[in-house]
Amino acid sequence: MIRFHKLALGAALVAVLGLIPPSHIGNVAFAATSDMTDAEKKAEEVAATAAAQEILSAATPYAPPEGSSSFAYEAEVSKMLDIVINSLYTNKDIFLRELISNASDALDKIRFLSVTKPELLGETKELEIKVDYDPDNKTLTVRDTGIGMTMDEMVKNLGTVARSGTTNFIKALSESEKNNVNMIGMFGVGFYSTFLVADRVTVASKSNEDDTQHVWESVNGESNFHVGPDPRGNTLGRGTEITLHLKEDADQYLSPYKLKELIRHYSEFVTHPVSLRQIKTVKVPKEEDEFKEDDEPKKDEGDDFEVTEEKVEEKEPEMEEVTTYEYEQINTDPAIWARDKDVITDEEYQEFWQVVSKGDGGQKAEDWTHFTAEGNINFKSILYVPSELPYALQQGQLDQMVNGLRLYVRKVLISDEFDLMPRYLSFVKGVVDSDDLPLNVNRETLQESKIVKIIKKKLVRKAIELIRKMATAPMPEEDEPTEAEIDAEGNSIIPEDKPKKIHPYISWYKKFGLSLKMGCIDDSANRDKLQKLLRFKTSKTDGENDYVSLQEYVDRMKDWQKEIYVFPGESMKALKESSFMDAFIERDVEVIYFTDAIDEYYLGNVREFSGHKFRDITKEGVKFSDEDENVAKRRAKVYAEKFKPLTKYLKKLYGSDVSRVSISKRLGRAPAIVSASEWGNSANMDRIMRAQAWAHKDAPEPHFSSGIMELNPRHPFVIKLLESIPEDEEAEVPESVKDAAWILLDMATMSGGFPIRDPKKYASRMTRVLKSNLGVESLDLAAEIDPPEEDDEPDEPEFDMPDMKEFNMGDLDMEDLDM
Question: Which segments constitute the Histidine kinase/HSP90-like ATPase domain (predicted)?
Answer without folding.
Answer: 91-250
